[in-house]
Structure formats: C-alpha cells, structure tokens
Amino acid sequence: MTTGPRLVLGIETSCDETAAAVVAHDGDGKGRILSDIVLSQTDEHALFGGVVPEIAARAHVEALDRVVERAMTDAGIGWGDLDAVAATAGPGLIGGLLVGLSTAKAIALATGLPLVAVNHLEAHALTPRLTDGLDFPYLLLLASGGHTQLLRVDGVDRYRRYGTTIDDALGEAFDKTAKLLGLPYPGGPAVERAAARGRADRFLLPRPMLGRPGADFSLSGLKTAVRMEAEAIAPLTTGDVDDIAASFQAAVVESVADRVRHAIRRFRDDGAPAAPALVIAGGVAANGALRAALAAVAAAADFRLIAPPLRLCTDNAAMVAWAGAERLAAGFADGLDFAARPRWPLDADIAGIGGGAKGAKA
Amino acid sequence: MIVLAIDTALEACSVAIGRPEGAPVIRTEIIGRGHGERLFGMVSEVMAEARVAFADIGRFAVTVGPGSFTGIRVGVAAVRGFALVTGKPAVGISTLTVHAAEARALGATGPVLALLDARAGGVYLQRFDGDGRPSGDAEAANIQRATEFAAGTSLAGSGARAIAAITGQPIVHERSAPDPATLLALAMTASPDGPPRPLYLRPPDATPAKAAALPRR
Lengths: 362, 217
What we know:
The structure holds 2 protein chains of 2 kinds. Chain A is built from 11 helices and 10 strands.
C-alpha cells in the first residue's frame, strides 16, 4: 500500500472520443486531474449523421498511443510514477473498446502495473467525487447519446438502477430530431439553439411517461409525434424548425423532470443522507433548459444539484482514471484476459429493461 | 537484438521471441477470435520461457493485415503500447509479405502471388518478384482480377486454391495465419519506418446518411 497519492492513467475509447488522462487520488479520497487529453472524431462521422463503428475503431488505433504519450507529458510524469492503468472496457462500441483495452493491457504488462477495467457508466457515476468530493450515497441522472439512466450510487461497485430508457437514449432523441429538422450533427447543441428562438407552445407534443410509477424513460413516441407534426406542415420555414425544436425540448424537459421527481421519492424511501444530492452527467447535461428544470426539481426536494464541468460530463478519460483509482483503492484489479463488454449494465441484477435481442442496452 | 513478434491478424494468436543466440521461442494457438483476451497472457508466458524482460527487447513486430479488422487492431494497439512504454521501435509487416517469404523458404524461386481468402468471393493479394520484393501494391480483388496477376507466379496463401483452379498455377502453400518463425525472421531484418498501421485494404462499411431531413421552404 503506497502512502502519498496514487497516480492512475486512464484511457477512453468507447465511442468517438480518443482520450487519455492522468489523475491523482490522494490518501484522503480527494482527487486532482494532472492531464486530460480528448481527441474528438466528430468531423469524421459528420457526413454519416452519426457515429460509424468501423470508422471510430480505425481512428482510435491511429491516434491512441500519441494521445497517451501527450497525457503523460502534460502530467509531467514517467511510467515509473504511475500506480495503475485504467481503461474503459464497456459498455460501448466493441472495436474502439478493444483498441483502448489492448493498449492499456500492453502498458500494464510492459510496466508491471495493475490493470483496472472500468465500466464507462461507473466512470460517469463517480465523477462528482472527483470534482466535488461528494460522499455516498447520491442520486445520478446519466443522460447521453448512448445512455439514459437514473441510478442510486451507494459506493464503488454498488449501484441501484431506478430507471432507464425503454427505447431511445435522451441524446439520441435530440440527434434524431436534429436530423429530421435538417440541423447539424451532433444534434443536442443545434436543437437547443433553435429551441431558444422558437415557441414551445406551438405544437402540442406528448410528455412521455408523465405521472407513471417508477423512473423509466421512453422517447420513441415523442419522436414519432415530432415527425408527424413536422411532416404535416412541411416544407418547413426556419421559424417552423425553431418552434418544433422548442416544443420538442419542452416535452423532453417536462418528462425528465417528472422521472427525476419519482427517483427522488424512491431515493428518500431507500434512505437519504442529511444533505442529499442529485448529480447530472452525460452530454445531455449540457442542455441549459434541462439544467434549469432539474435545478428547480432539486430545490423543491431539498436536494443539492451537482453538475460536473461540461468537459467532464461528456466522454473523457479523467473520469476513467478516477474510477480506476477508486476501484484500486477499494481493492479491485483485473487480469490481462479481461474481455471488453459492449453491453455492461451497472446493476447486473436488473434484466429485461431497455433490452432487445442482445440484452440491456447499458 | 532481441525481437518480440506477434500475429493476431487471422485465426491464430502467435507470439515469437528471437534472440541473437539460441533458438527462437514461439507459441501459436488457433483461437479464431478473442485475441484481445489471450494475447497478453501468451506474451507473458513466452517472455518467461525465453527469460526475456521488456527492457531487453530491442524491437517489436506485428502483422498489420490484411486479415480480420478487429484482430489487426488488437495486435497493432499492443505493439504500439509496448513501443510507447519501452521507447523501442515497432515494425509492421503484412501477412502477404510473410506468406511470400515462406513460399521462398519452401523453395519457390520465381515470382510469388500471395493470396488470402477475403470472403465474399474475393481475395487480398500482392505480387512479389523473384528476389522477394513487392512488384505491386497489396489490394482486395475479385477472383477474375486476381487471375490477371497470376501469370508466371507460384501461388501462396489461403486464397491460392481458388486461383489455381482457374489458371492451373502451382501452389506453394495454403496457409491462412502466417508462420510466426517466418514473421520473426522478417522482423529481425526489417527497417522500422514509423508506427505500424493497420492494412485493411477495404474501406469501412459505412454509407453516408440518407436525406432524412424534411424539405425546407
């Protein structure tokens, strides 16, 4: 057991960001980011209107070793200063996961350091402990292009899933709406900009799952309603696009706020600390309207709202390094035969939700 | 110089260590898939058997394809990781180059056409001259086109039979995964030329987004 801080190298390649970072985990559980490199492939996928797995995998293997080298240089450390190597091993696109995990295994083998295989969702889930020193337990809304979950975070490796999407992810709904309206990829920021100019009350769209028990999400009905309203008035003017975007965003925000209210109630039932916290993470946490609505929901329930800086909400490797450090401190390490997992639910006990032929989405 | 060579491009997972003195230590397992899970344990085992540490290794080598896209990336990522930590160079060698070299080792004296079955009625191929130098770029071709390269060559690799059936050219060997001893021999004499990069020979399977957007006024 080392005294001083543990330094962990983290690698993230589960989607379209090639990222590496070094994080210090102090003995008292506090963290510091020593370097944080993210190389985005957005431009390489823009032509296709979404992430193409094979293009992503090819880009990761071309770039990752230099990205890792840069993270080490920026941190000002050598291999001998590290205590572990962590990499996202799932959930995500298998081609990219294999590149990141293989690189991490090679580094671990050549340095003799332990390998920590990290669940990407756990990395998001533990980020507020790095940024805000948050204590367990807390409630987490994780919302991105690939994931939509409400989780109770009880400790490292200890999660209870309160809700998940039964069809599309939140970020996916923004992307699909953007595509329909001819707005650029990625859709989230584009829809938000259009929505800011539009009238949210012009189109009456459904509020999915509103008032239903539990905290699951559903976005596909809303997606269909948006398409039908838009098709009915096509060809669209810029004003139409803005109004549809605003009406869509308002429906999403209201639905999410309702789901979070339900999750807060359950969190209290399961035992809440004196100063409970709601954390939002994932790329969708960048949406200003959603943040404002969740701030109100949290305030009404006497919860603190914690939103890590946007750079740490979207995909990055600092969160992977941090999760690796937390897992290492909790006694977890993995073998060099660890298999990447395209699907890897945080709460393995829950099955059959948000599924499909291949099992739970995340 | 001690060289560590790996091959994960096809159905085999191979690790070979060559030393200036003594026989090479080579291990091959036919695993089909799962290279990312098996490779690193094998590297560790072969290094232990050869009594070699990473600090002793002067060069890493890897097959860069053509082959399974996933397998190629595992191998390339691995040696680029080893090279990054140790500061030693890594070289990439194509599976077709290994096949052609093995054909010469088996007695072929003239030009060799190295061929790998690429599924879907196609092959990956490259032509080599009598001295073992490539006399054209590697490419993915259909059988018809492949026969046009075959004149005056001996055929080598898993795609050889489909061509020989049409042209009647002699087959030297029909290997799919390359021979690790031949790979190691090539690795010892290769000149490092930047980090190894996958040789896919096929574009990614992706089509540009259809015009899903509604018409604008």
